[in-house]
Amino acid sequence: MVVHVEDESPAARAGLREGDVIVGFDNGAVRGVDDLHRMLSDGAIGREGKLTVLRRSEKLEIAITPMESVAKS
Questions:
Q1: Pairing of strands 58-64, 28-29
Q2: CA trace torsion 55, 39, 11, 2 (10° rounding)
Q3: How many folded domains does the chain comprise?
């Protein structure tokens, strides 16, 4: 479940919202945060992919381009 979306992040630009439940990435099932982290490896950075999310009673496909995290000071 998405608990927070950083302003100006790839997630925010893609339209993810707090409360969305991520259930898939590029046709692979996401059963937990560890699955998602594995799928968002270096090979996915900068390459557009599709997240499958549940938002209330809707199942949505959201295009997203994962980027490296930038540490804030």
A1: unpaired
A2: 40
A3: 1
Q: Using alpha carbons only, give the angle 11, 63, 31 rounded to the nearest 5 degrees.
A: 70
Tokens of 52: 């499958």
3-class state of residue 66 by DSSP: coil
Helices then strands, each counted (H, E), the chain:
2, 4
Span 36-62, pLDDT tens digits: 888 887 678 888 999 999 999 999 999
pTM (two decimals): 0.83
Domain that holds residue 22: 1-49+55-59+65-69
Asked whether the beta carbons of 1 and 17 are under 8 A apart, the reply is no
Distance of CA 12 to the CA centre of its chain: 10
